[in-house]
Amino acid sequence: MNALEEITDSFARLPGIGKKSAGRIANYLLMADPQFLQRFAVQMADLQKKIRPCSVCGSWTENDPCPICSDLSRDRSVICVVEQPQDVSTIENSHEFNGLFHVLGGVISPLDGIGPDQLRIQSLVDRVSAGGIKEVILATNPTVEGDTTALYVQHVLRESSCTVTRLASGIPVGGDLGYADKLTLARSFRGRTKI
Ligand SMILES: [Zn+2]
Question: The whole model's pTM is what?
Answer without folding.
Answer: 0.83
